[in-house]
Amino acid sequence: MVVRWPGRPRGESVVGPPTTTSRRRCSPSCSGVPNPPSDYASGHSLFSDAQWNWLIAASYADFAVIEPDRVTVVFPSGYEIRDRSYRLVPNPMLPRDSLRAAMHEMGRFYR
User: Which among 14, 26, 109, 110 is placed 20 to 30 Å from 56, CA to CA?
Assistant: First the structure.
């Protein structure tokens, strides 16, 4: 992503080493709101050093929790877990902590 930010010197908006991110980090990065990002967003600013343990990808019917080593897709009728290469994992164990945290976070904004 390239950001042109009037009033900031060139190169100041360059974010460190490549990292996995999502659109949820755009609002905290560009809003200029003085409140902490947790008041209005699920992500952290692109300019912060905050690390991510998981990301949420959601639609109206299902959602996925994306972690560095797996993707857990939750459907209305079940779930599947895929590896880093998005291959189906046989006999998977649910990542309960990540799922619980993602569902809590989604509950803050989705009713």
Answer: 14
Do the beta carbons of residue 72 and residue 95 sit within 8 Å? yes
Residue bearing tokens 């690390």: 51
Tell me the two tokens of residue 35.
Answer: 């409140």
Q: Which two tokens stand for residue 41?
A: 């967003």
> What are the residues whose beta carbons fall under 8 Å from the beta carbon of 64, sequence distance 6 or more?
56, 57, 58, 71, 72, 73, 74
- What does the block give as tokens for 71? 């993707």
108 three-state secondary structure: helix
| Whole-prediction pTM | 0.68
